[in-house]
Specification:
about 35% helix, about 160 residues, alpha+beta, 6-stranded antiparallel sheet, Beta-Lactamase
Length: about 160
C-alpha cells in the first residue's frame, strides 16, 4: 500500500508500470509478477520484499520513487526520499564510484551484480549486493532516469 501522503495514485501507477516495463525490456525478466491491473502492479511493486528506488534526469538527479522497503532502509518518509539527491544515498567518499556506475549504466542500459556501501538518513551504513541498476525508458524510447533493485543488504 502506497504512503497515505505523498504521490498521487496516478503518478504511482504510471511510474511503477514504467519501472516494471523498462526493467523487463532491458533485463529480460519481470520485476514483479505481471498483472493486467495496473494499480495492482503498483501495489505489488510498493509492497515487494526487495528494494526499488529510482531517480530522474536532473543535473543532480533527485529520487522520485522508493518502495516501502527502501523507505525503511533509508529511514525516510516519502517526502524526504523524493526530495533527496540520489547521490546522497552514498557517503561522500563513495559518491564518485557511484556516479561512475550510473554513467556506465546510462551507456549500456543495465548492470547486474553491483555492490556498494550506502548510508541511511540517520547515518546507518549498509552494504548492498547483487544489485540491478537499469535505465528507465519511456514507451516512446526516451531516457527518463535510472532505477535500482536489490534484496541483499547487510548493516555495517
Amino acid at each position: 500500500m502506497p504512503p497515505a501522503t505523498g504521490p498521487d495514485r496516478d503518478f504511482l501507477t504510471s511510474h511503477s508500470v514504467l519501472l516494471c516495463q523498462s526493467f523487463e525490456r532491458l533485463v529480460g525478466r519481470p520485476l514483479v509478477d505481471p498483472t493486467p491491473a495496473l494499480e495492482e502492479m503498483a501495489d505489488r511493486l510498493f509492497d515487494a520484499p526487495f528494494v526499488v528506488v529510482s531517480h530522474g534526469t536532473q543535473e543532480d538527479p533527485i529520487l522520485n520513487y522508493g518502495n516501502a522497503i527502501a523507505l525503511q532502509l533509508w529511514e525516510m518518509t516519502w517526502e524526504e526520499l523524493t526530495s533527496t539527491p540520489s547521490r546522497m544515498t552514498a557517503e561522500p567518499a563513495n559518491q564518485a564510484a557511484r556516479a561512475e556506475a550510473m554513467e556506465r549504466v546510462k551507456e549500456v542500459g543495465y548492470t547486474e551484480g553491483y555492490r556498494a556501501i550506502r548510508i541511511s538518513k540517520s547515518g546507518r551504513r549498509f552494504e548492498i549486493a547483487n544489485t540491478v541498476i537499469w535505465n528507465v525508458i519511456s514507451e516512446q524510447g526516451d531516457y527518463v532516469g535510472q532505477a535500482a533493485t536489490f534484496a541483499d543488504w547487510t548493516f555495517l
